[in-house]
Specification:
The chain is α+β, with helices and mostly antiparallel strands and 112 residues long. The chain has a single domain, classed as hypothetical protein tt1805. It has two helices and five strands, in the order H-E-E-E-E-H-E. Strand 2 and strand 3 form a beta hairpin. The protein is globular, with a radius of gyration of 13 Å. This is DUF1491 domain-containing protein. It comes from Komagataeibacter swingsii. InterPro entries: DUF1491.
């Protein structure tokens, strides 16, 4: 398992730094559990287009992501509704937001 023991708070800091270095600034919208919180990533694209990535694991235990709001871009209301539902289910959830023109993750991410 590649990163199973990496605490979420450390991973978040690393991803924010990595994205910032590539010109895609990010911020924490909700601070979750530092040790083992799940992560949602809101991607802000051009023209108000948005997408939400949710964290999952591959069968071999590696971190992966899927487009939780679907393949098509959504608006702010769609993002807010999804994030609110997830936060109600998991208050330890981290929510990050990144500016990325083409709605691709600005950090190393396996999309499934």
């Amino acid at each position: 398992m590649e990163d199973a023991r990496l605490k979420t708070g450390i991973w978040v800091k690393a991803m924010l730094r990595q994205a910032g270095q590539t010109g895609n600034p990010g911020m924490v919208l909700h601070h979750g559990d530092d040790d083992a919180g799940g992560v949602l990533v809101v991607l802000l694209g051009r023209g108000g287009h948005m997408s939400v990535l949710a964290q999952t694991r591959t069968p071999d235990g590696r971190r992966a992501w899927f487009r939780a709001t679907g393949e098509a871009a959504v608006d702010q209301a769609g993002v807010d509704a999804y994030v609110t539902r997830q936060m109600e289910r998991d208050p330890d959830l981290w929510v990050l937001e990144f500016d990325t023109p083409d709605l691709t993750p600005p950090f190393e991410a396996k999309l499934i």
